[in-house]
Amino acid sequence: MPSVFVQGRPVDAYPRHAPEAGNGTVRRVTEVGEEVLHKSSRECTEFGPDLAALIDDMFVTMYVAEGAGLAANQVGVDLALFVYDCPDDDGVRHVGHIVNPVLDEQGPAGRVLLDETEGCLSVPGAAMRVPRPDRAVVRGFDKDGAPLVIEGTGYFARCLAHETDHVDGRVYLDRLSGRERRRALRQVEDNREEVLARRAARQAQLT
Q: In terms of pLDDT, which residue wins out, 148 or 116?
């Protein structure tokens, strides 16, 4: 089985970081409570160099923040789009972007929920258990407007569901009970400064 899939297609070899990151500029990651994170993102209708440049910026920002995925509203841009570089539970690496993503609805029949720990670059320093289906299918387009279908299992399925939530204006805290949400926000209070300092140091190394 191939060890890397790019845009849903197997490749023989791939660098440590997506090549797009080499063209990008690091942007500030928005944090929970900022309006852009809590509303549905605007559908992307223009495909071209501006969109490609945003994707470049999102890749390098994701790597600096040590994330597995990043949505456009996490860099303050109100567009339906996310990038990812994420392994699945079999160790296969998945890299790519998807514009105007829509997550396939799954009925309860045959659906398996995995209750595992989840974090978010926009909720710095917190990690909580969130139930997610063990399989996800996301449909959308690539940066040139060509139709795209991305499928994932395990941890990569979690990533696809998490990032599609962002596009729909939800953060994973919205899936927690009030008590668990407060616990997560206390984790942010305790750990945020350390996380942001680590990102700043990593940015100095990568750029």
A: 148
At a CB cut-off of 8 Å and minimum separation 6, what does 190 contact? Answer: 125
Quick one: pLDDT band at residue 179, thresholds 50, 70, 90? very high
Average pLDDT, the chain: 95
Domain that includes residue 45, residue range: 4-206
Report how many domains make up the chain: 1
Q: Give the residue numbers marked as catalytic.
A: 163
- Asked whether the predicted pLDDT for residue 110 surpasses 90, the reply is no
Measure Cα distances from 91 to 3, 41, 94 in Å.
7, 31, 10
C-alpha pair distances (Å), 188 with each of 61, 74, 121: 20, 16, 11
**β 113-119/93-103 pair status:** unpaired
Return all residues near 145 (Cβ < 8 A) that are at least 6 apart.
Answer: 47, 99
